[in-house]
């Protein structure tokens, strides 16, 4: 908005005026019939330059005024007198789009920061427990009578650490969920068995009976995300179930797709809390049993929605908890989205 930029903007007009003055002067000088007008040529040139300078000054002032009103409008000054309706429309549209992007990014950053804060505090718990167990192992290294119990405790705490680290890694990737999606055909039977094998100690140490139905169905989804979500749900079932409990994993065919159910006979969820399980930071009765960030189901639902899947929970306190993931038919994806 300085003089240099204004001159650059109207340089073609300046060149035109200079060209006209030069052309007129040459014609007057070379035309014998206009010899008497030569005495007035300086006066005419002077008047033209004065008029051009005047219009230059007025144009520059208008230029400054227009830019000032534009800046005022951009800075949300309601008292500004900006009259370019088309430019207003473009500015308003771009502002609205940018505000949505900024707000979305701000929420994502807040979610990640909140989770990482809770995660950092929670990771200290199993680390401290492992330190204590390590001291006990050194004290009884000559005896093997309690070796299995100690091995069990160490593996449980290490599994907790592994789960927390995995959660942190996945949440750090989900600033823009769709950017990391790789959709492919996945066999649910192979996927669930891979998860069970990875988490076998949870079932062995807690004497949990596992019942797996016929899961031989293929779905279209992102394998890493789906595997992570199902693993989190299974871990929750093992975490909040009583010893010698039962975890059932089965599928149901529906008209709109396939439902994968992970059901346990654990502590369940209170009736008044069932509608809040997917809220950010929700822990409910879980907090009485073990530490929890309250972010697992919240993130899982967001990811599943982005993948055009769905997740619901049915539960009765002290009886059961049934988590259902719905993988819609390909023809229904457009409706769901």
UniProtKB/TrEMBL annotation:
This protein's UniProt keywords: Cell membrane, Kinase, Membrane, Transferase, Transmembrane, Transmembrane helix, Two-component regulatory system
Matching SMART domains: HATPase_c (SM00387)
Subcellular location field: Cell membrane
Molecular functions (GO terms): kinase activity
Transmembrane regions listed in the UniProt entry: 12-30, 42-60
Domain of life where this protein originates: Bacteria
EC number: 2.7.13.3
Membrane topology term: Multi-pass membrane protein
Domain Histidine kinase: 118-331
Chief subcellular location: membrane
Gene3D superfamilies per UniProt: Histidine kinase-like ATPase, C-terminal domain
Protein name as catalogued: histidine kinase
Organism: Paraclostridium ghonii
